[in-house]
Design goal:
165 residues, two-stranded antiparallel ribbon, mainly alpha
């Protein structure tokens, strides 16, 4: 869990963990952020499967609740930030997260969209053959949640970050 916390602090990608227990959107943002970082090459070791709001890891949820229980002071944050961790694809991470405000409640839906499209294209079973099939499956799972334009923008952002071809 230290690697998880250190990485999130180094990249300034730690969502508002103070609200983790009470706020579903904060928990969803946390799940989707870690899923995408792991897919970008950071080896956290979490296993994700499909759930109602896209990729989900119960062991990551457990670690999130454990992180909330930690009393993290400004001094300890500095200690975590001073550690170095090999972060592969840092440029792609910056491309993907550059315009995302992880403290915004609207962000959780966008991250859900990114993670869901990616999961459907790369990990779904039975295997999804192409983007159009993934979009159709997403519309089937989440009718009326995302517009065609939102889905197309998410696909373009995943492509720009090197997560899909």
């Amino acid at each position: 869990m230290k690697a998880l916390l250190t990485t999130l602090l180094m990249l300034n990608l730690l969502p508002n963990m103070k609200e983790f227990k009470e706020n579903f959107k904060v928990r969803k943002t946390f799940q989707k952020t870690i899923y995408l970082l792991q897919e970008l090459g950071i080896k956290f070791g979490y296993h994700f499967s499909w759930y109602l709001n896209g990729p989900y890891s119960s062991s990551l949820a457990d670690d999130g609740y454990e992180m909330v229980g930690l009393r993290i002071s400004e001094k300890s944050i500095g200690k975590f930030k001073s550690k170095t961790i090999d972060i592969p694809n840092e440029n792609n991470i910056n491309i993907l997260f550059n315009n995302i405000d992880l403290k915004s409640n609207e962000t959780s839906d966008y991250l859900e969209l990114l993670a869901s499209i990616h999961f459907l294209l790369t990990h779904a079973y039975p295997k999804i053959r192409n983007e159009n099939e993934a979009k159709q499956k997403l519309k089937q799972y989440k009718p009326d949640k995302f517009s065609d334009k939102e889905i197309e923008n998410a696909v373009n952002n995943l492509r720009a970050a090197g997560l899909i071809q």
